[in-house]
Every structure is written in C-alpha cells, then in structure tokens.
C-alpha cells in the first residue's frame, strides 16, 4: 500500500522526451537541494533507524550499510508510506537504480528497462516518490511514471500515488499564490506522461482551492480550463447526463447555501462565450429552485412577523422588489432550460420540465406549473401524484377555474384514498385564496362521496362564510353547508339568526 500527503510543486514542466539528451541538466524541473533533505526510515517493528540523503554520493557511499537492515516491515519516505507483505527488505537493485538515475548520464527509461526484472512494484513506487520530493528532479519522477505506464505496470495503487503527488504539487502552487495559469499548465503537462487531466483530476484541484479558502481562485481556475478547452473525463457524454468542472463548482457553492452565486456563475460563463457542460445548466436550475424555495419561506416568515406587529407591513415598493426578484430568478431558470434544450439531448427534456415545474410551484405560479405537468406527460415522464395535488391547490387559491377543472379529471381514475387527499388539497387551496363559496361546495362534494374533511378545514370554511354573511348578507351557501354537516353528524342542530335592518326584523331558522 502506498499513500502520499505532502509534495513539492513543479513550477514549469517544459520537457520534451525525445529531444533531451541524458547528459543535459533539467533545470526547469530541479529544486534547490539545499532546501530540503530526503529521509528514509526503516521500521523493523521494534525500533526505527533514519538515514538522510543530502546529495547523490550518499547512495554509493552508504547503501551497503543500509542493506544490513533485514526483515524490514515498512518504509517511510518523508510523508510517503509504503509497505509490502511479500518482501521483507529493499533489494540492491533499488539503491542502484536511485544512484544511476541521480547521475543523469542515461535516459531514465533506459535505466529502468535494464533493471526491470530486479525492481519490485514497491521499489518502483519508492523510486517515483523519491524524485517527487522537494529538492529532487521532478522531471525524472514524471519520466519514471511514463515508463511505468508504457510497461503496463501502473496499477490502481501506483495511479493513486501519482495523483496524490500531483495534488501535492497543485496544493503548493496554490499556497504560494501562483496564477491559475500555472496550475492549468501542470494539468496539461501531466498528459505527457499519460495522466490525463480528466474531470476527477480537475475536481480535485477545485476542491483544493475551495478547502484552502481560495474560492475566487477556484472560479478563475474553472474559467481558465473552459477558456483553453481542456477536455475532461465526461467529454464523451454527448447527452449531458454527467457533470463537469462548472457543474462541480456550482455544486460546491450550493452546498454552502449560496444558490444565487451558483446560478450567476453558470450564466456568466455561458454568456462570456465559454462552453460549460450541459449538466451544469441542470445544476444551476436546481439552484434556482432552492433559491426560490428559500425566498418563499423567508417571505412567509416576514409576513407572519408583520401580522404579529413585530415588523411593519410591506409597502408597495417592497412588494414590487420581491416580485421583481422572483421574476428575475424565474427568467434565469427559463434561460438555463433553453440552453439545455439547445445543447442537450431529447432524453433530458423530462428533467427540464421537472425543474421548471418545481420552479413555478415554489413561485406559486399555478398556470405555468400546470403546463409543465402536461409537458412532462408529453415527453413520457409522469409526475408524482403529490405534485398534481400541490398544483391543484395553487390553481384553486388563484381561482383558476379552467386549470382546476383539468386537474380534477384525473380523480376519475385514482383510488379513494388518493381522491380524498386531492380534494383536501383543493379545499385548502380555496381556503388559502379566500374563496369560501367554492370551499363550501368542495366540502359538500366530499361529504357526498363519503369523505370527511378535517375539523380545522371545516371550521375555517364556516368562519369564512360567516364573515361573508356580515358583508354581503348571502345565507344560502352557509345554510346548505350547515345542513350537509348536520346530516353527516359532524355538527349538531343550529339556529341561524338574520336581522333585516330595513324592516327591523329578526329571522330565526332551525337547521
């Protein structure tokens, strides 16, 4: 097993494999040897011995003494740890390979090819780690990995080790405040040794920026990746079902509750001529839904405070501002959906309408929400029954008679429990909108079908009708509702008192 935690950066990776002779020095990839030594620690289960390599001559002078340690259990190289249950000690080939590679008189591939049969997988990993250390020839580390790849000796463990080394270099670049161009250059140059800058690699870099508090750096990094047109692991995902760098960064913003910034990020990239992956538009649409939902909850809470007198009522200007903010969010969501339609495949259309449906539900737009229900059905994606009920309640609260009638047609084919549930949503929609005549008709219809509305719903309808009697003097609906409730034994007999001012006459009726 091999793992890595901290590494030195590569400032520039300007190497060419075919044109560099073995005798040439690789200045672009060398770190000052005086900055950091290199330590090997050998563990035998009881004690630990440490040897420090400060120059190349150490290996030829000291490796014979190192061979004296037998039955070694593990080896620690600075912050790298590797172990192998099958071998008890390092072979002579390991030290000879390090010595030969340090001399730089021959190509690393020639040295490794010559000693191929003498080096175990563990020792090859240690060679890779050795040259990735601060103060060593990182160019050689890349050539070692390239040789391993060409020889088909890069297993999962070695690949993870190289990725960890690369992440260490990136982390050092970020810590030293290098520009995002240097980080992207590193990713591009890693392709030369077969370590493609795929989405998972780009995702790791974004996470490094984010975890180190360099959020603006993460945005600039993704922007540079898109500007250069660097392909990622999901580039073959033509239908847009998988994520990419823009979507991942937007998701990171969403995870911290910054939904608006996630939406603006994707839109800004698109409008500036870059090409975010299609899936990022869907993630941004999800952010729109979440922002609309949070905005609606905050608005309800504010209105509740206003009713209790804790804050003043919203004036006309405040109402206009809230409506404009909601309208802007919806416009962003529609714009994102249009981009998915343009760039994505038809298989995404159902998801698009599902997101639009959620947006309009959060915004309380009944007609638009109902339209998305039918659009989903047309593309073969059936919405959940609860969503139909929610849209039904919204349309009822807005007294959209035609939309309500269309949505009620599905009650003909649903079960009795579902029918009662849908009618309850309809009733509460009418109550919320203050449409108590329609609410009373719904209660009576439910009673005819053998469904008993909830007590609070019945009480709300009766109270609302009583207020309307005082305003308009219309008793008919109230009397019919009381009779229906009495017949169902939901209320006892009652007396209705009516005073006619013109004639100074009281009329009393037993129900």
TrEMBL record:
Keyword Repeat belongs to the record: yes
UniProt keyword annotations, A-Z: Repeat
Record-linked InterPro entries: PPR_rpt (IPR002885), TPR-like_helical_dom_sf (IPR011990)
PPR repeats: 419-453
Statement: the UniProt record of this protein carries the keyword Repeat: yes
Protein known as: Pentatricopeptide repeat-containing protein
Native species: Psophocarpus tetragonolobus (Winged bean)
